[in-house]
């Protein structure tokens, strides 16, 4: 089992015991906008997903890790997606589920751990993220970790009957 250890949190591979947490996250309409989700997921589908979570990132082109505190509370998820080994890039996204755990540095620490893993162990050249123009917290989080705003995608997402702009941020490993 892969574990990346930080000062206050650690990142670990998905386990079957994460079914309830992931089900709650994937079916929380308040986070659908940031995850580009429009439909709920059944426990059956999530169980199937967890059964395949052991597959190699080179095969499935994604990696989802759980953000846990050292007293073993699962507080969030951090994802690599659109993993492209030929061009050495991937998308990255982070979610701390409960508002009580947000803005305490957990997302920052998780992001720092995963960025380091991507550059050192996966040999990636760049990471990117897509952030809604209105998501000031995520803009600050990624900007403070060295990600640069490289563009605005106009009317990119259609949410609740209106089009919303989305920024593209990149971090290039020099």
Q: What does this protein look like?
A:
The protein has 174 residues and is of the alpha+beta class. It has helices at residues 19-26, 32-35, 43-51, 57-60, 106-120, 136-144; strands spanning 3-5, 9-13, 63-69, 74-84, 89-96, 126-132, 148-159, 162-172. It has one domain (3-125): Aminopeptidase. 28% of the residues lie in helices and 37% in strands. Strands 1-2-3-4-5-6-8-7 form an 8-stranded mixed beta sheet.
Number of helices, where a helix is a run of at least 4 consecutive DSSP H or I residues: 6
Mean pLDDT value: 89
Gap between N and C termini, in Å? 30 Å
CATH topology: the name is: Aminopeptidase
Query: How many strands in all?
Result: 8
Topology pattern, helix = H, strand = E: EEHHHHEEEHEHEE
Which range does the strand content fall in?
Answer: 35-45%
Report the helical percentage: 25-40%
Classified by CATH, the class is Alpha Beta
- Any idea how many domains? 1
Q: Measured on Cα atoms, how large is the radius of gyration?
A: 16 Å
Which overall shape is indicated by the principal axes computed on the Cα atoms?
globular
Strand line-up in the sheet with most strands: 1-2-3-4-5-6-8-7
Major β-sheet, in short?
8 strands, mixed
CATH level-4 homologous superfamily: Gcn5-related N-acetyltransferase (GNAT)
- Given the helix and strand composition, which structural class is it? alpha+beta
CATH A-level architecture: 3-Layer(aba) Sandwich
Low-confidence stretches: none
């Amino acid at each position: 089992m892969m574990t990346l250890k930080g000062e206050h949190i650690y990142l670990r591979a998905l386990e079957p015991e994460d079914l309830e947490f992931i089900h709650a996250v994937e079916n929380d309409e308040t986070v659908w906008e940031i995850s580009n989700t429009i439909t709920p997921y059944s426990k059956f589908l999530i169980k199937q997903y967890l059964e395949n979570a052991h597959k190699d990132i080179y095969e499935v082109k994604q990696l989802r890790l759980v953000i846990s505190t050292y007293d073993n509370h699962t507080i969030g998820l951090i994802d690599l997606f659109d993993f492209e080994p030929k061009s050495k890039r991937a998308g990255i996204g982070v979610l701390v589920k409960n508002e009580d755990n947000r803005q305490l540095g957990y997302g920052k620490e998780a992001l720092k751990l995963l960025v380091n893993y991507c550059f050192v162990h996966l040999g990636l050249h760049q990471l990117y993220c897509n952030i809604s123009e209105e998501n000031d917290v995520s803009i600050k989080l990624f900007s403070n970790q060295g990600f640069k705003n490289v563009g605005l995608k106009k009317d990119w997402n259609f949410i609740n009957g209106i089009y919303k702009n989305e920024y593209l941020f990149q971090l290039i490993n020099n």
